[in-house]
Amino acid sequence: MSLVEIRFTLNGREVRAEVPPTMALLEVVRERFQQSGSKLGCGEGECGACAMLLDGEPVLGCLTPAVDVDGREVRTVEGLREQGHLGALQQAFVAEGAIQCGFCTPGMLVAATALLAEHPHPTRAEVRRGLEGNLCRCTGYVAIFEGVERAAAGGGK
Ligand code: FES
Ligand code: FES
Question: What fold does the segment set 4-77 form as a domain?
């Protein structure tokens, strides 16, 4: 299979890769650039564990062809740090005990980042809607919702 060259920005860094046309963005990010925060859960667009931001919009890395991100900006959970430290949203998750086994957490943080960009002070219903594509098998959704609301209230630190 012939390879396609792509160049894109990954967590603020210009990168390039040669990829098969069918390769998923999640695989490229994890295997080629060692950004392993985004997780492979279902691989079928059902769980949200692979969520990342493409030009600021949430996408599923398992379903997004890597060739689609040529010339664009990708941000994963690693890119949510602020000056090398946990960002306010991440700190709010820790403070609320929203990280149980942690597998779904990167996708939750990415989805919540997109949600808070659109609704800086979301209602509980908006938080639920913003995270409805993300499954937590530990079923600890209340703590996750409270983590998002804590960040919105400026209580991350
Ligand atoms: S791994 Fe992508 S949605 Fe589940
Ligand atoms: S914290 Fe375990 S799947 Fe969500």
Answer: Ubiquitin-like (UB roll) (3.10.20)
Per CATH, the architecture of 88-152 is what? Orthogonal Bundle (1.10)
Residue 79: half-sphere exposure toward Cβ, Cα within 13 Å? 23
Kindly state if the Cβ of 41 falls inside 6 Å of ligand 1.
Answer: yes
The pTM score is 0.95
Nearest CA to 31 out of 40, 43, 21 is that of 40
pLDDT at 93: 96
* Cβ–Cβ under 8 Å, residues 56 and 16: no
| Ligand showing the shortest atom-to-Cα distance for residue 106 | 2
Cα-based angle 84, 88, 92 (whole degrees, multiple of 5): 125
DSSP bridge partners of 24: 65
Q: d(Cα 117, Cα 68) in Å, to the nearest integer? A: 23
Note whether 4-77 and 88-152 share their fold.
no
User: Which of 47, 131, 134, 137, when mutated, tests ligand 2's pocket best, judged by the most ligand atoms within 8 Å of its CB?
Assistant: 137
Domain extent listing, the chain = 4-77, 88-152
Confidence of residue 156 (pLDDT cuts 50, 70, 90): low
pLDDT tens digits along 67-105? 999 999 999 999 999 888 999 999 999 999 999 899 999
